[in-house]
């Protein structure tokens, strides 16, 4: 008999829910984005985010079950992101999940958001467990994290590299702000940089220690700020900055971030004898990163379609299924863990 899991994700600015069968088959994937509201403030406002989650959760749940053509009683487990993320936002999802699981009499699973990003790859193509098989070198690059995680099996993680300062997505968001491209920065930088030749090279976003698998993006962020100042793009001049100049700096920035992500991930994969690379997190939606990782990697690269890279409930449901399969379930007093790490 197949197992239907509801995945709930409210760790940041998307109220997202999905129904997944046996950890691999996506029935529906509903994502209510708050981006337009937060864009007015140039970034995510935590109090506004939690309030929006409260307003959105019932309609999103209704839409998810309707689209999947199921009743709540058909669900065999409720999986919810319980960390890391914004405390107030996480609480909305976790309390909803508790109520549902209790009322339905099914297991409740508190899922690590970063582990969820890895499991997005289980929703695409072959079963990574069978082909290419473990170990997998996973790069989770999002607005809050840039982690290189070695996955030796389900539930078996070792953190082998991480950012020492800003996360990759945060760097995209900050560069976009300096260049007047709005929020969120990743998609905006990618859009203007599309097809633009990189003439001026910004410094490589890397640490001096070449053996380390850690990342560093703060130097690059400062370089973007200086370059934008030198070219009269920042502070924004009257009439707005020159779009061609903005595109050139954006393209140079993107190239540098991608080069560093690819270099360290491939070094980690080689060092650990990984059979494949798994990409996840919002930054994995970046077209240049996907293209360069695939071009340069000697092992297969598993990368979900962009909508499964950015935050969604499907990855949480998929991940929850594999916990459930191992007989896991959480007690009703499970709390949120805003700083939860993986590995
Ligand atoms: O995983 P995610 O949706 O939320 C977090 O867990 O943080 O990642 C959001 C981050 C943002 O910083 C956003 O700018 C970045 O992912 N992002 C991108 C792209 N799409 C989203 N960065 C680069 N290129 C993209 N196409
Ligand atoms: Zn995320």
Describe the protein's topology.
Layout: E1 4-9, E2 14-21, E3 25-33, H1 35-39, H2 46-68, E4 77-83, H3 87-104, E5 108-112, H4 113-119, E6 136-141, E7 146-153, E8 156-162, H5 168-178, H6 185-193, H7 218-230, H8 243-272, E9 276-280, H9 287-296, E10 301-302, H10 306-309, H11 314-325
Parallel strand pairs: 1-4, 4-5, 6-9, 9-10
Antiparallel strand pairs: 1-2, 2-3, 6-7, 7-8
Helix pairs in contact: 2-3, 4-11, 5-6, 5-7, 5-8, 6-8, 7-8, 8-9
Bound molecules: 5'-O-[(R)-(carboxyoxy)(hydroxy)phosphoryl]adenosine (KG4) and zinc ion (ZN).
The site of zinc ion has 6 residues, from helix 4.
CATH class of the largest domain reads Alpha Beta
Count of separate DSSP helical elements: 11
In the CATH hierarchy, the third-tier topology of the largest domain is known as: Nucleotidyltransferase, domain 5
H-E order:
EEEHHEHEHEEEHHHHEHEHH
Mean pLDDT: 96
Any ligands, ions or cofactors bound here, and which? 5'-O-[(R)-(carboxyoxy)(hydroxy)phosphoryl]adenosine, zinc ion
Q: Cα distance, first to last residue?
A: 32 Å
Proportion of helical residues: 40-55%
Q: What is the count of structural domains?
A: 2
CATH architecture of the largest domain: 2-Layer Sandwich
Structural class: alpha/beta
The CATH superfamily label of the largest domain reads: ATPase, nucleotide binding domain
The coarse silhouette is globular
Give a short account of the largest sheet: 5 strands, mixed
Number of strands: 10
Low-confidence stretches: none
Rg of Cα set: 20 Å
């Amino acid at each position: 008999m197949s197992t239907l899991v509801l995945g709930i994700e409210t760790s940041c600015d998307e109220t997202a829910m999905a129904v997944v069968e046996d950890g691999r088959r996506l029935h529906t994937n509903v994502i209510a984005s708050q981006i337009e509201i937060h864009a007015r403030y140039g970034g995510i406002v935590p109090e506004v985010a939690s309030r929006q989650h409260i307003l959105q959760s019932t309609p999103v749940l209704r839409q998810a079950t309707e689209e999947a053509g199921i009743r709540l009683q058909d669900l065999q487990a409720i999986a919810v992101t319980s960390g890391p993320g914004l405390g107030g936002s996480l609480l909305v999802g976790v309390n909803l999940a508790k109520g549902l699981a209790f009322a339905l009499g099914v297991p409740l699973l508190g899922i690590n958001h970063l582990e969820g990003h890895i499991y997005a790859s289980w929703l695409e193509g072959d079963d990574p467990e069978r082909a290419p098989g473990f170990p997998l070198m996973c790069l989770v690059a999002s607005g809050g994290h840039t982690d290189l995680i070695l996955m030796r099996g389900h539930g078996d993680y070792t953190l082998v590299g991480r950012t020492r300062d800003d996360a990759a997505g945060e760097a995209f968001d900050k560069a976009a702000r300096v260049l007047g491209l709005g929020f969120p920065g990743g998609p905006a930088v990618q859009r203007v940089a599309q097809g633009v030749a990189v003439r001026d090279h910004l410094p490589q976003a890397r640490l001096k220690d070449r053996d380390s698998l850690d990342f560093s993006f703060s130097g690059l962020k400062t370089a973007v700020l200086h370059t934008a100042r030198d070219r009269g793009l920042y502070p924004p001049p009257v009439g707005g900055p020159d779009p061609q100049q903005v595109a050139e700096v954006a393209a140079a920035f993107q190239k540098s971030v991608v080069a560093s992500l690819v270099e360290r991930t491939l070094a980690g994969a080689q060092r650990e004898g990984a059979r494949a690379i798994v990409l996840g997190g919002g930054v994995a939606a970046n077209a240049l990163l996907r293209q360069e990782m695939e071009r340069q990697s000697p092992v297969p690269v598993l990368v979900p379609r962009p909508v499964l890279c950015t935050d969604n409930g499907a990855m949480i449901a998929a991940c929850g299924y594999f916990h459930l399969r191992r007989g896991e379930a959480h007690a009703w007093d499970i709390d949120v863990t805003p700083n939860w790490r993986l590995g």
